[in-house]
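ENTRY TYPE: paired fold submission
RECORD: A
CONTENT: sequence, then structure tokens
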Amino acid sequence: MVKIKNLLNKIKIIFKDLINNIKLSFKNNKKKSITILSIIVLAILGSITLITYSFYVNKSTNLLIAGVAQINPNDIKINIYREDKDSSGNGLGTYSLSYYIPSETAYTYMEANTTCDTGITITGFTNNVFSISATKRGTCNVYFDAIDGIAEDYIINLFVQEELGGTTYKQMGQLPINETGYYYTVNNEKTSCNPSGTVSIENNKILVYASENTTCNVYADKNEKLTLYKTIQAKYNEGNTFVKLYDGEGSDTYANPVYYYNGAVEDNNVLFGGFCWKIVRTTDTGGVKLIYNGVQKTDIDTIPLEESQYLNLSNDANYPYTFDSTNKTWTSTNKTNGATGTITFTVAEAGDYILTYTVSSEANFDKAIFYKDGTELGTYSGSVSGTITLEGLTTSNVIKVEYTKDSSGASGNDNVVFSLGKTIGNSYLTCNNTGTDSQIGTSAFNSSSKSPAYVGYMYNTVYTFSSKSMSSLSNIVFGNSFTYSGGTYTLTDTMTIATWSEGYNTINNNHYTCFTTGTTCPSLYYVYYTSSSYAYYITLTGGKSVSDALNEMLYADDVNKTDSAMKTYIETWYENNMTAYTSYLEDTTYCNDRSILNLNGWNPNGGDTSGSLQFKNYTTNYSLVCGSVTDQFRVGNTKAPLKYPVGLLTSPEVWLAYKDASYSTYYLNTGQHFRLGSPCEFSSNVAYEGYISSAGDLGQWPVNTSLGAKPSVSLKPGTGYISGNGSYTSPYLIE
């Protein structure tokens, strides 16, 4: 009995290793034009036989067919036919459909008789694994001939529970493989094998262990999967202080309650597609929205040194480093331009150490420099934090830290904070990434900021601003409106500005001008912002008004023609890394809300030329409602199309994340600037988009400046996870 159990364990190990190898093959070859689909069907060792009563190793792995179409292994259907036998085990020349591959001791695979649809080829069958080359969806009919003289081996009759907790079972050829939100277990009370056998279900496959010919009646009970949405919902119902219910605008129309994470959350980590993510909120469909957070890294526990454990300490006499006994950290005090503050020390005990640092300084000018025995370990400047590994540190190695300032200027905290910790225990994987490690890179939102159009995740017509010095001009005519005929604009309801410095703030109702003392011109200028010396304006032609210009830039049905720089950057990353996982994702909305909060100078009737064009998310906004269909970016929205189901978080999602919490400690604070997808304003000459600062607060930044890129995706409703509790070291592992 012990030998049989050991052999079964070996079979399970081989089975799992083979599955893992195939998963790895899928991942490593996902960009090839021809993809190999491997299908495990049967494994036999000695007198113990393992029957796999289902065809697919990994039903949820997507394949790239011809490098373009995304295909699920379920889309390649395998019909298996085995030759009928008489009572003596001799083949009859007729074939019946089988729901599993018969054992190689009783049947022979007949490659010559096997046929596949055009575009699909079975390239091999070895070790009970089919290899299939496919460029399209389709079907293969494979045949097995009986080996004469060997009686029928196994018969499996499968009965599947129709409803959760129900009493009726439906006979089926295999377990439902396209179902989401459920899994199946063996009902041992109802299941029986004659004369003997043991049945289990692993990864949606029925496994039968038997040492002789047997017939099994297998009853499979239906169970609800442990899904991310239900886990989050349960946390809320249990009173978890970090999970909140969205009850704002639009919530009364949702099919499912929307929950969001708020504050200093540490258990919303997910491992999906080979990357770390953080859960932001659920969607009204029951999906789960995530934000990228880097890759898993190896970490190790450390014990921070006390002040007394820094030996041979030499602290700067003029700018001494101060020790915080609570946090076990040293902080530089040098804030004098052109000076350097230095500290050196050794350790009391040899071993492996981790030096952790945080620098907050004038980027590229004021720097923290670390040395070991006079050899530089690294120079850091600006807003940055990280670690330096010091393996095999001896009691004679000298560590030196310098904080050096240039001749002028200061930024941030103007210091370096560091600590030294001795490593203990074994290394482990973690998803606790911050800084640049938590983003895919940096990109401008758009290459230019000179038009309101550039707040768009996509845009079309662009009216670029111009500025004009008005100091030397006098008696310039401005109109409230105009007429247009024969290629000429004529101003109406006019007023004259005798001198600009005295009248620049009086044109709130008269924005149109030819910038002359006359009233006619072929091109008209709309002044939306003024200063005591300059007028900022857009140029209108063809009889168009400022309302026409705003419509073409922000609202029109065809407003989304050209991808923004950020959209291109994120979708290129997705294409290179995530297409194999598209089937896991829902096509949810990524909002780029260009609704206007305040037109100010863009309003031809009473528009204040000292104010900016303000979008809905210019101020605090907790609403998840996304106004216009042209701002609701999805793959399936032809008016706001995404290439892939990936986008950016919005300002309201961030406002909710730190509502009534501390932005310095809440979970979206990575210590690095990164972009959001929410337009904020167009000032006199710059378009601004939302962003999260290195301090964690939400603000706005010019769209043509490169900031961190952190993609967001949304898992489909019913998505389950294999393991994990959401912590940094045990993230939810998506199945």
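RECORD: B
CONTENT: sequence, then structure tokens
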Amino acid sequence: MAIDSRRVAAVYARGKEGNIGSAYFVSNGVALTAAHVLSDAGLEVNDKVVVLPSDGIDWLMATVVWLGQDPYLDAALLSLDDPTQWEVASNSLWGKLPGSDPVAVQSAGFPSSVTQNDGRLSRENLIGFVTPPVDSVNGCIDLHVASSTPVNSRGESLWAGMSGAALIAGPCIIGIVIKVRSKFGTDRLQALSVEHMVESESFLSALGYRPELSEIGSDWRLQYGSHADKSLVLCNPNQLLPDSYNIARDPYRLLRPDHRQVDFLFRHDLVADIKQWVLESKENLAIKTITGAGGSGKTRLAIEACLAAADDGWDAGFADFQSPGGNVRYHLESPTLIVIDEADLLASQIAAIVKTTRNSKTPIRLLLVARSRTTWWETLHSLSGDNLLGYDQGEISLDNFPMSKGDCAELFRISLQRFSNRLSVTLPANVNLNFYEEDLTDPLIVQIAAMIAILDDTANVDHKGAELWRTKIMRRAVQNEANRWVQMHEMHHTNWNEKVLRRCVSTATLVSPSSNAMSGVTELEKSAIRFLRTITDLNDATNHQILSLSDWLHTLHSGPAYWNPLRPGQLADQLLADLTILPELAETIYKVAMDRRDANSAKTLIHAITRAAGSSQGCAQYAMERIFRLMGKAS
């Protein structure tokens, strides 16, 4: 998907009022724009306007040759008085939108809000997506802006002047921008579809040809195995939150990265690096990973990379192994970026994709998103027939790119504004980010803090204490994490239920098994088994079964220790606060640590219990009191 910059132009309607708009050359000497750009200035058919191509230097004289008179046909055609002054190679390709899936689009125009100080016009590129179907009455379609919105200090519409700019999807023009959807803020525009325009015979007569409308959309399905169930579709990275969705009942949904509710404020250099890798890798198949802890922004970074690649004409999206639809293909025809999220759970599928695409004649990029490169990476290498390393082009670890305190404060401020707007509640005054130091690098936790600040504000709800919404939101986050634990545990082919798995993760958060300076992994395993035995549900489990759980915990959260606690700490606090057996479990763990002279585990236990008790009362507070009593007796 790429805009031909030679076709993009500004229009100045010099009528009674004077009006700036945008246009797109759809054939040699003929440009398409919005009718109201002309009619608002008092112009009619045969009147004169001036046009400035975006790559040109001089304004060119043109004539209005067709003007939509129907209120539902806000389009017009201009013809250069001298077509040789600015020539385009061919007629534009035209397209229509089938189905109902969101489709990525690009546009370029001249919003007056970015006019330079000396009065010169500045071209603005817009990236977004549209949501079919086209309205059967007025031919309009909503355009959701995904890129940055122009800044305005003059009190006029931020997008004034963008009217008439063409919407490009794939290689085709599918419509033009006509107005702002005022009830939805600055990130929702309305476009007129070309499907509606070509229904007018007078429009076609003025155009001079009858365009064939190609269907636009991600309609292919890549089969990467011998059976139909080994296939995927490319999912649009922008998953629109429906207007009909009752977000007040489920505010947590605003935190999902694919809904893109908060502006992408940082890490633009990483997006540029990924885009450069996508475009400039010489190999037809190339693989890169994005790694980082949960909530560090991996998925959102991959989404922004997809948008950047789409801006340069690539098919780009997330691999969807479940959704139906699409015409089956065994080879991709266009340069394609495929993002595979939760890659550590999909090693067998990725290995098959590598085998299928390794001889592709078309450039293909696999961007794998995971918590870390641990045992799943070694498994993937083996399953791929030892092909993986030859196509591997490195790792971007977000652990090496933490957000600064200033970044976090800005993200918190923007999140407050966006969430309060979406939830139609009062923006809290004088609310500051007050989180634990080690959590400040996690975008998800910063946004959760903003959501809790809004929902707990006395201006918005009957205030029943900060625990009300904090507990609801954090429990939802922990449950999402728990769903991942279950998925990963199923890969170990054992059948412990979610309750036991939660207690195992809680134990791993409370201790760090230590070999006590003794040699070998065997001592670590013995230590791990001893700590897991403190969970009463595992009293009858065999050492082999518990060792399987220990191996699972070892791979669950990346880090330097044998087990690593659930992080960010806010999630760990909520996990422990909801653990009814915490007082008994913590006391038993402390005794085991003392018996083994495992000072590291005792220290980790006390720190985790103290934090959890500081965030909530109940079990964590009682557990802390019991531990301190034991410490007093020991002294």
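NOTES ON RECORD B: The radius of gyration is 29 Å. DSSP finds 18 helices and 22 strands in the chain.
STATUS: closed
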